[in-house]
């Protein structure tokens, strides 16, 4: 895992090909026009690649909203910080 994880809003905006400002904590597959089921798979794939983790198939929908993705980012960032020192 790299020292600095990509910001979850930047990561999702890149996958959805939208401005970061179109996303907020309530954005999800059901509320954002560009966030469909195909992009959900692309988001999970980007999370796995950029955060160096594996998300099990049964957990793919767990990360279908910004709140859950941000929580994952916070948890992984905390682990990375504790591993440093």
What is the H-and-E element order? HHH
Helix content: 40-55%
User: How would you sum up the global shape?
Assistant: globular
| Mean of all residue-level pLDDT scores | 92
User: Mind telling me which CATH architecture this is?
Assistant: Orthogonal Bundle
**Beta-strand level of the residues, as a percent range?**
under 5%
Outline the low-pLDDT stretches.
none
In total, how many domains does the architecture comprise?
A: 1
The assigned structural class equals mainly alpha
The CATH topology, please?
Answer: Non-ribosomal Peptide Synthetase Peptidyl Carrier Protein, Chain A
**In the CATH hierarchy, what is the superfamily?**
ACP-like
Radius of gyration: 13 Å
The CATH top-level class label:
Mainly Alpha
Count of strand segments: 0
Largest sheet: none
Termini separation comes to 15 Å
Contiguous helical run count: 3
Outline the structure in words.
The chain is mostly helical and 85 residues long. It has one domain: Non-ribosomal Peptide Synthetase Peptidyl Carrier Protein, Chain A (Orthogonal Bundle), CATH 1.10.1200. The protein is built from three helices and no strands. It has helices at 8-16, 37-51, 66-84. It is globular, with a radius of gyration of 13 Å. The two termini are 15 Å apart.
């Amino acid at each position: 895992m790299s020292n600095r994880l990509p910001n979850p809003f930047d990561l999702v905006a890149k996958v959805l090909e939208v401005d970061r400002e179109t996303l907020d904590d309530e954005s999800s597959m059901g509320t954002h026009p560009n966030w469909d089921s195909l992009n959900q798979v692309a988001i999970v794939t980007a999370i796995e690649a950029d955060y160096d983790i594996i998300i099990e198939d049964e957990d793919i929908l767990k990360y279908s909203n910004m709140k859950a993705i941000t929580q994952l980012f916070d948890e992984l960032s905390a682990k990375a910080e504790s591993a440093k020192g």
